[in-house]
Amino acid sequence: MVHLNLDKYKNLRREIDESWINIHPIQRGGILPPESKETLLSFGDGYSTCDFCIEGRIDLVRTPPVLDFAMDLAKFLNMDEVRFTPGARGAKQAIFRSIAKPGDTIILDSLAHYTSYIAAEVNDLKIVEVPHSGYPEFRINVEDYAAKIDEVKRQTGALPAAILLTHVDYRYGNLSDAARLGKIAKDYGVPYILNAAYTAGLMPIDGKKLGVDFLICSGHKSMAASGPIGVLATTYEFAGKVFRTSAIKGPWSGRAFLKKDVFLFGCPPVYGAPIATLMSSFPYVYERVKRWDEEVNKARWFVKELERIRDFHQLGQRPRQHTLITFETPSFHKISKKHPRKGFFLYEELKRRKIAGIHPGMTRLIKLNIYGLTKEQIQKVIDAFHEIARTYEIEVE
Amino acid sequence: MVHLNLDKYKNLRREIDESWINIHPIQRGGILPPESKETLLSFGDGYSTCDFCIEGRIDLVRTPPVLDFAMDLAKFLNMDEVRFTPGARGAKQAIFRSIAKPGDTIILDSLAHYTSYIAAEVNDLKIVEVPHSGYPEFRINVEDYAAKIDEVKRQTGALPAAILLTHVDYRYGNLSDAARLGKIAKDYGVPYILNAAYTAGLMPIDGKKLGVDFLICSGHKSMAASGPIGVLATTYEFAGKVFRTSAIKGPWSGRAFLKKDVFLFGCPPVYGAPIATLMSSFPYVYERVKRWDEEVNKARWFVKELERIRDFHQLGQRPRQHTLITFETPSFHKISKKHPRKGFFLYEELKRRKIAGIHPGMTRLIKLNIYGLTKEQIQKVIDAFHEIARTYEIEVE
Predict the structure, then answer these.
(1) Which pLDDT score, from 0 to 100, does residue A1 have?
(2) Cβ–Cβ below 8 Å for A221 and B15
(3) ipTM > 0.95, yes or no
(4) First vs last C-alpha separation in chain B
C-alpha cells in the first residue's frame, strides 16, 4: 500500500465557529439550532435512520418519524406529496428527467441558479431564458414568460416541457412574483416549477396559492438542516410521474424493486444526518417563518446603514424583500487597487473583527446575507463596515 | 398557515446508542470513530466546507483540504482521479449516463445492489445478468461474463456499454474475483465498473491491479463517514468523459459554468458533514484496512460458533471472505410460527440484550455484519444466540 502522510486530516475543524458573525450569502438559512446539534450527533452514522426500515425507502420510515414528517412538510408547504432529494439540485434533475424528453425546451429566468441550467444540460434539454431588467435592479418580470412560451410554441410547434422560476435568486436576492406566474402557467397549461431554495423555510410558502406544480426547497440552505438535502414537493397530478417507482426486472433473476423511486436513486441519499436534522429543525423552522417580516425590516435598515458609506449602492429590488443583499462598492474597489493585500484587504479587515462570509478578494461587489442575525450582531457588522471605510478615508454620512 | 403538532420532531434521538452492540448488515463499516464526531459537530452546518470556496466545486476546496484529500484518496485506491457523489448510487448513475446511451446494454451480476439496476433503468439501458450458482453458495463465476459479452455482441451487434461487478454483494457477502474480471474486460475492451461499496475502506483495494476503469466506494457504508457520500474513482482515460464539465450557455445571458461537472450536479451534494467526516475518518480507515485479515478470521470464528446451533447454516461462500454474513435458520423459523410475537421474538430477545440490527420480524434468514466488533462483543452476540436457542429448546452443540 502506498505511504501517505495524513496528519492534515486529523482533528479537522472549521475555522469559523460560533464566536464569529457569519454573513456568508448561502449559509444563513442553514445554520442548525442548538437542539439539532444533539440530533446531528445522535444520528451521525450514515445509516442511522435505517435501524427500523421496513419498506426500503427513507420517506416511509416510521422510527424516527419520517413518514409523518413527509406528510407534515407537505401540509406546511401546502402541496400534496413530498420526497427528499440530494439537494435542491437533485430535485431539479428528477423533475426534468420525469416530465421532459431529450430535445424538449424549458424556460427559466436568467437569474436561475446554475444547477437549473445543469439539470437541463444533463437531460439534454434546450433552454430559453427570461431576461432580467439589467442594472441596477435586475428584475425578472414574470409577464415575460408568456411571450417566451408563445415563442417556443411558434418555433417548435409545442409548448415548453416546463417553466422554472427562481423564487429568490442567489445573485441579487430579488423576490419574483410566483403567484402571478402560477396564473400564466395555468392559462397555458404548462408545468410550473418554483425553486424556493432561498424562500421555503425562511418565509411562509403556500404552494397551492402560488399555483405551482413543483416546489423545490433546500434543507441546508433555508431549513436549518445539516444536509445536503432538498425537498421536492408536488401535486397529486404530477406525483405519479416524478415519483414513478421502478419497473425494471432482472431478466435472469426476476428481481424487481417495486417500491423504489426511479428518479430519486431508489431511496434518495439523504438518510442519516441530513433527514434527521431536517426533521429536528422543523419545529424551529415552522415558527421562524412567521417572523419573516422582522427579517425584511432588518435587511432594509442594514441597507440604509451601509449606503451611508460613500459609493455603496444596493443592487437588486428596492426596497429589499429578502436578507440576501448585493452592494456595488466602487469606493472599496478603489482601495483594493492601491492596497498591498489587494482585494483581500476587506476580507482580512472583517476577519480581524471575526466577521466571516465575504468572498475573499472581492471588493467590486459585496454579497452577504444577514438572515437570523440579532440587531446587535447586525449593528456590529454595520460598525465594522463604517470603521473600515473611515480607516481608508471613505466618507460615512 | 396550517396548524401542526410538531412535538414528535423535538429532541429527536436514535434509539440505538453506543451502549448497544449493532450488527446491522449495512452499518458496521460506516460507524464514525470518536475523532470524526468532533468534526461532524464542527462542520454540522450544511455549507460549512464552503467558507473558502474559490473555484465553485467541493473537490477543489483547499480549506479544509479537500483538494489534497481527493488526490490522496486516488492514491489510496490506486486510481487516477476521484470525485465525490451523493452515495455510491450517484456514482453509478453518473457513469452510466456518461458512457452509455439509451438502448445500450450493460452486464451486471445477479447479486448487484438494487441501485445498480435503478441506475440502468433511469438511463434507459438494457441489462443482462450474470447468474449466480444458486443455493447454498450463490457464487458469481466471473468467467461467465465472457459468454455474456459474446451473447450481447451476437444479439445487438455491439459490445455492451459496460460490465459491472459487485465486489462483495449485500445479500451473502460473497467476494468475487475482481482481478480476473479485469483481465476479461481488457481482453474484450469493455469498460469495467467495480462496485466496492462493501470493500473499499474495509480491505485494501488496488484499482490498477484489479484492472478496473471505474471504482465505486461508499463513505457511509465502508469509510466511516457520516454521509451519505460516495466516491467515484476512474482512470485518466475515462476521467474526461465521466467528469465532463458543463458546456451549456444561457442564450440570452451568455452565462456559462465551465468548472461544473455535468454528471455530478455541478458541485455534488456532499459538502458539509459528509465530505468533512469522510476526510476526518480517512487516517483511521487507512490504518484499519491493514487489519482486514483479523476481521475475516473473526467472521470465520463467528460462523463456526453460530453453526453450533441446530439448523443454523451459513449461506454464501465458504470459508467466509467478509464480515457480512447470512444464515438460514429454519430452527428459529419454527419457533416464530408458534410464538405469540411471531417472527418478532428474535428481534425482541436480542433487543433485551441490547443487540440491534437484525431485521425485525425476520427469522427464516438472518443477515448481520460483525465488522469492527471486538472479540468480547462478538462473544456476547454468540452467547446471546446460544441462550436464545436454549430458551426455546434448540440444541447447541
Answers:
(1) 75
(2) no
(3) yes
(4) 64
